[in-house]
Design brief:
Number of domains: 1
Shape: rod-shaped
Number of strands: 0
Helix content: over 70%
Radius of gyration: 37 Å
Strand content: under 5%
Structural class: mainly alpha
Length: about 130
């Protein structure tokens, strides 16, 4: 039997998912530790409030970084699209010029053959 190796690249967790999981685990662990610690209810609530504020700040920072990365990716995609459209237009113009040139050359040859059949051109006549 052939060895089957799983493809970790397509199913791997993204950086943001790992970061979020780490933060969520830290918050849950801190909450459990505070709830089980031998402190007064007021002190525990104050500590939990600070931890919650810290987690909120971390989440906002993460959100800001992700928004910046997404904006950068969108800008790159727009630039790529614009370059691709310009290149497609250049290729189209070049193809049109080549086809027109080939058509002109063929039309010129066909015209010369037609004039030659009709005897319009005489030997030594250079006006055409």
């Amino acid at each position: 039997m052939a060895d089957h190796k799983p493809d970790y690249t397509s199913h791997g967790a993204s950086y943001s998912a790992l970061t979020f999981s780490f933060l969520a685990g830290g918050i849950a662990g801190a909450a459990v530790a505070l709830l089980l610690a031998p402190q007064s209810g007021k002190a525990t609530r104050e500590i939990m409030g600070r931890k919650l504020n810290d987690a909120t700040d971390s989440a906002r920072e993460l959100k800001g970084r992700m928004v910046d990365k997404l904006n950068d990716a969108a800008d790159s995609a727009r630039e790529f699209k614009d370059r691709t459209i310009r290149r497609g237009q250049e290729i189209g113009e070049e193809a049109t010029n080549r086809v027109e040139g080939a058509a002109s050359a063929l039309a010129g040859k066909a015209g010369q053959r037609e004039r030659g059949k009709n005897g319009d051109l005489k030997a030594g006549d250079s006006s055409a």
